[in-house]
Design brief:
With about 180 residues, this protein is α+β, with helices and mostly antiparallel strands. The protein has one domain: Alpha-Beta Complex (Peptide Deformylase), CATH 3.90.45. Helix content is about 30%, strand content about 25%. It is built from 5 helices and 7 strands; from the N terminus they run ααβββββββααα. The strands form 2 sheets. The protein has a 5-stranded antiparallel β-sheet, with helices on both faces. The chain has a two-stranded antiparallel ribbon with strand order 4-5. The chain is globular, with a radius of gyration of 16 Å. Bound molecules: nickel (II) ion (NI). The site of nickel (II) ion has 5 residues, from helix 3.
Length: about 180
């Protein structure tokens, strides 16, 4: 189904917060209630991620300070609830972006391989292993749950340049007001 249509049918309009929204730097609470509300919220996260052509989205990016994130890559979906890293190996530098930083990409070093543990919407625990791109996506989303952003790995100079660009975006130089501004 057309994704815009899908969103309309479900009545979804989850706004994605943009840097430097202070919510993105806040820590999150673990999920303890594995109920219908949780399942519904996870579904909305997937929808918002797909609507923005993302490969991952974390709850704080839509203003919800809970340990919930989703990743979707090459047709595989990963729901990460209360995730934690069990083991990591290697190091790989690759270009990374984030839905809270539209149009911004930077090289970031991450472990090449990870084993993580996380829960699904029913509270069942799963151990997942991933390498390369998916490992990077897991770690990027898990960082969001600790209030960490990919630009935190960059030099202060690069981070400053990105901040400047994002401030310009948020002030709104285009005809369409940015999402973060519309929220208020
Ligand atoms: Ni991100």
């Amino acid at each position: 189904m057309d994704q815009t249509k899908e969103r309309e049918l479900l009545g979804i309009e989850l706004d994605i917060l943009r840097y430097p929204d202070p919510i993105l730097k806040k820590p999150t609470e673990p999920v303890s209630a594995f109920d219908e509300d949780l399942a519904g919220f996870v579904e909305k996260l997937y929808m918002a991620m797909r609507a923005h052509d993302g490969v991952g989205l974390a709850a704080p990016q839509v203003g919800v300070l809970k340990k919930i994130a989703v990743v979707e890559y090459e047709g595989k979906s990963y729901t990460l609830i209360n995730p934690r890293v069990l083991e990591k190996r290697g190091e790989l530098e690759a270009e990374e972006g984030c839905l809270s930083f539209p149009g911004i990409y930077a090289l970031v070093k991450r472990p090449e391989w990870v084993r993580i543990e996380s829960q699904d919407t029913e509270g069942k625990t799963h151990v997942l292993e991933a390498e390369g791109f998916v490992a990077r996506a897991f770690l990027h989303e898990m960082d969001h749950l600790d209030g960490h952003l990919f630009i935190d790995y960059l030099t202060p100079l690069k981070r400053g340049a990105i901040r400047k660009k994002m401030m310009k975006q948020t002030r709104g130089t285009s005809a369409e007001p940015p999402r973060a501004a519309r929220r208020r």
